[in-house]
Amino acid sequence: MELLSCSYGQLLARDHPVELVEKTLTVMCQPVPRLLRGAQYVLARRQGHVVGMGGWSRETPFGRPGVDGLGHVRHLAVHPKARRSGVGRAIFGWIAETAQAAQVTRLSCLSTQRAVPFFAAMGMQAQGDVLLHLGPDVSLPAMQMCWSG
Question: pLDDT tens for residues 17-26?
């Protein structure tokens, strides 16, 4: 999951101490194989290289069963060299479109503070600050975001 580490690492490093970034990446960059193989996940490629990825699931990021009509944005990441080129917007558009086709009317995500402007530009509304507990000694400030299609 080199793309996740590269994308998330660069963004997190701007706001957090190196030790926290390293611990966070260890958890956040662990792929969930059933998500990656699912129909609700996409890779964006340019000239044969993966420049973005993302998807959604009904189950929560913590593995709990989902709620009817609610989907969760999962692992949306864009390579730093491809940022601000429409890749993230295209991936989010795909997520929203496929979620709506599956009768999902709301999307939720836990966004890092640095990614809040991107998700807001996609039409997601900030619901409030949360502390994302990723492990016994790893917590990261985040924003709960919600989108209604």
Answer: 899 888 888 8
